[in-house]
Task: structure prediction
Amino acid sequence: MSLEARTVGKPETIAAATGHFWEVLWDRFARLYGDHPDHDPIRSQIEVRLSGYRDAHTPALMGRGSQPELPSTEQSGQVVYTFYADRFAENLRGLSERAEYLKALGVRWLHPLPILRPRPGDSDGGFAVQDYRQVDPRLGDMDDLEALAGDLKRQGIGIILDVVCNHTAREHAWAEAARAGDPRYRDYYITIEDAAEVAAWETSLIDVFPNTAPGSFTYDADMGGHVWTTFYPFQWDLNYANPAVFAEMLDVLLYLAGKGVGGFRLDSAPFLWKRAGTSCRNQPEVYWIVEAWRAALSIVAPSVVLIAEAIESLEDVLPFFGQEAPGCDLAYSNGVMTALWGALADGDAGIARTLLSAATARPNGANWLNYVRCHDDLIWNALAAYAPPEDLARWSRFYGGQDDSFPNGRAFQTADGGVPSTNGMAASLLGLEGDVSPAGLPVRRLMLLYAIIHALDGWPLIYMGDEIGLTNDEAYADDPLRAIDGRWLHRPQMDWDLAGSRDKAGSIAQMLFDAMRHLGETARRLNDIGVCGRAMPCVVGDPAVLAFTRDDGPKGFMLLANMSDRTVSITLPDRYSGAPDILGLSDDEGDVSRLPPYAVRWIVEA
Result:
């Protein structure tokens, strides 16, 4: 069923669709927990909760109140802006005051990284949640979140929140009760008493942070054994083999949706189900859980968007969109993102063409969240199925500061047998510290990458500061709470003085901000023109040029992007011969087939 079928239609059509989603919910619930002794009482509990939420929040949750009307994922220009709230604004009220800045940029969806109450001290950037029903007190409270959602809606902006669904902080009330010996809550987590059994599990698991948090278990005396901790010792994995955990997390989603949240990023979703002898990632039950959550939300809150944060191989990501029923509406296009950086390093678009071809396998009614950078590292190992080891190693060296090249990046940790990932802000990885000229190659590289992701099918994401050329935060190493994690290099404080210079003609901030705004506006024009469909890569002569078409609508569209530092000429297909460049980011001197270094064209057939 398409995304649109969840939000529009006559009452009788909506009723029929709702009945279908009840069927999906109970089918997946039975697959997961049919043999569990608590299946029947938990199912009854979920039914009561859903009915209660529907009665309390209709029509708001049906998309006519606290949330904006949900656009199709096929619509271009649905710009998402992501950031750490405390690094962008002091608190949620301050964030509301920045709404005009976001509106001027053309943002349609705002995604603050974790803002729910974290554990004290190191919380992995907020991803160790102590309470899903409270906001981080440094940022405000739940009333402030609800007010923010309302303020943003009036600006035409929806809000997306992280729901850290794989684990809680060890200080969460559930974990506190478990350590106190409550048998109900002990079963919310996974504890293994026998050290030999722990070792047996570890043989098939892959360390996420092999340097800073090796292993996937942490001994806890109160629990009487080793608690499963995939990420850090203070992040306790939830036991989704227990139907009560499934119901608790669904209740969290509904609670936050009732506060006006329009979408959820399901953090670390691939890790939800454990099975001996496997990597405990992307098990079939994971996809059933997501389909069940989607079905439940479609019954009472169909305008809510689900986004899969699954930095995995393509064959493992695609099922998050749903297999026999809808799953997530969007998923991070990690492969294409990483491939674009590889192509830029080589001045050869080959790896990007390969990943774009693979990305066309996504189903109708769901789409990609396309991005250039985010709060995490660039994981070269994610391309292991598409590029030889020597390519991965070369890209890692290039961006990790080990070669005599323009990037100002840092190597990050990696699992055994892999190559180091890369940390760094986009502007720094593209050489902005070495060339601060508004017309220089670093600025052209940055505009090139963002022009590509805005032209792709799916929604483009802007990482905080890229719109003004914000560079690395080298001072992170002086902060004891951040120094242990190299990813804080690319989690800087927003530079509002630099942002203020966007009104200064000829400044880098002005050029980048205006370019980002123009990209969003022009992408939305593609909807009016009738451009739609998957990005289908094609070859136009020179290997440096990334080219793709989107030809499913009444007007054909072609992107041309020169991934190299040399001027190239290409041969356009007859269909696009003489067609104009509607983007106009660089001077083509009347010849769209000639591309200067890092030039990009958006061509729409006449």
